[in-house]
Amino acid sequence: VNFTVRILGTSSAHPNANRFPTSHILNIYGKYILIDCGEGTQIQLRKFKIPFGHINHIFISHLHGDHFFGLFGLLSTYELLHRGSDLHLYAPVQLRDMLFSPQSPVKVKELPYKIWFHPLRKGHNLVMEDKNFFVESFELDHRIPTWGFIVKEKKRKPNVIKSKIEEYSLGIEEILAVKRGEDIIRDNGQVIKAKEVTTPAPEPRSYSFVSDTRFFPPVVEHIKGTDLLYHESTFIKKDEDLAAQTYHSTAEQAAMIAKQAGAKQLVIGHFSARYKDTSVFLDEAGKVFKNTVLAYDGLKLEIPLRKISSEE
Amino acid sequence: VNFTVRILGTSSAHPNANRFPTSHILNIYGKYILIDCGEGTQIQLRKFKIPFGHINHIFISHLHGDHFFGLFGLLSTYELLHRGSDLHLYAPVQLRDMLFSPQSPVKVKELPYKIWFHPLRKGHNLVMEDKNFFVESFELDHRIPTWGFIVKEKKRKPNVIKSKIEEYSLGIEEILAVKRGEDIIRDNGQVIKAKEVTTPAPEPRSYSFVSDTRFFPPVVEHIKGTDLLYHESTFIKKDEDLAAQTYHSTAEQAAMIAKQAGAKQLVIGHFSARYKDTSVFLDEAGKVFKNTVLAYDGLKLEIPLRKISSEE
Question: What is the pTM of this model?
Fold first, then answer.
């Protein structure tokens, strides 16, 4: 029931000595997915000892270099490591044209593994589904077509209480039935209520990734009630005009989105290099949304299990 | 009279947590040139505080990703920093096709600065000439077309001895004449010998870059007597077969080339990640060529002024 996010890079536009460009690696139930892949992502994956051969799904928000230039190196390294398993890319369609062009930096057709390319589309869409989680995409408001993502845990079945299994000598079929919420009526007329022998599963958790974008309140509907929101925060309030001009957000604006969405926690990153001291971002966001943390390269956040659902 | 080389990356094939891929930055009389530009080069340039906006000439040895994938990020960063000055690229012609294709990762035609592309050619060629130095290219023996480079200081004029200027009250025209090696005959018949009032200039220095290549003795003629030779050393002697198979060199082979070329100093790098302890490279090369140093990310080497030329 692991659900962790490791932020590999927190710079905006261009990297510097302490901040790599954007990339987030998620571990959900032991499966790894990568969101964005700025230059040097493979270096960060090695530094933080991520078994990156196990990444089978890569999501790219938009085609500014600081969000995808690391892909060429990663795809090449997979070749050197003799990767055989398929790799799925979810990205703006122009990336397909680039990678499959004869002038591509990586000769995709000569790779020893297969790339499945899934172009991102307009609107709110389910883009990937696994046994335990799924990923949806939605549009942001940036200078070029840009998408945000929400990674959602699937609703789990209720847990059967161990002592009740013994008390009623529940068989496998009976256990599966009560997990589906069905009451049991035995041949001898005995009734066992599903509610009595189970506890509801924890609420499904979610992680939302919103970068890069101008202050864009329509995003709220896509990420309502999310457990952890990553929102870009390139500027601070005194440079709000510059933020609007360059289609980026301020720390305050990121916090306003978190508040409106009812997020449980906010993590901000993608800081402009113009600010020497990033604590101003935290101060500004914290005034609007208290549970804010400042991202740094390597920050690992665990999304805790939520309170038990009351509906069941 | 600065002539320094800073090695920014020393990994082979793919980077790891401690070693970035290949890139060398040279400072010659305050001018910067970059040789190779693996992924993350701009991060290293920032880490080592190189004023990389001043790089106007970039040389790319071959089109394996670990030698050029950092170029996309660097070109983009120059755009973000509003670079205006021309940039010269010396590289295999396929890089031109890639950068100027509509599917290029960087939209070269939209950059605010001009790129001059100089394709590398067969044979030994002068590829770039500056006031104080010039660069020549020559072919290596790798899996794809690959070039080595030699950066040579120009022969400087003799120095005029200060005390002699005073002794003879030498004028500007006279100083320029003796620097050209011409004796002075004054109107009063006084003869001032150029040799008497000057000391010969130091020998011109050179830096040779040889990566990637199989053991290739023909390279020796291109780098004869070089002051500092960088030679790739991907493997050690026990893996000599693997080196030949993959068109790479061993530490011993690098040292043999240094010895045959009469180099003053050898620096080896491009180490395969298979060797945990790189001291074996130094031990092996040192047996053949004593003045060998082991490269590490950030190593800075100064090429010292040579003994005074005796011919003058």
Answer: 0.92
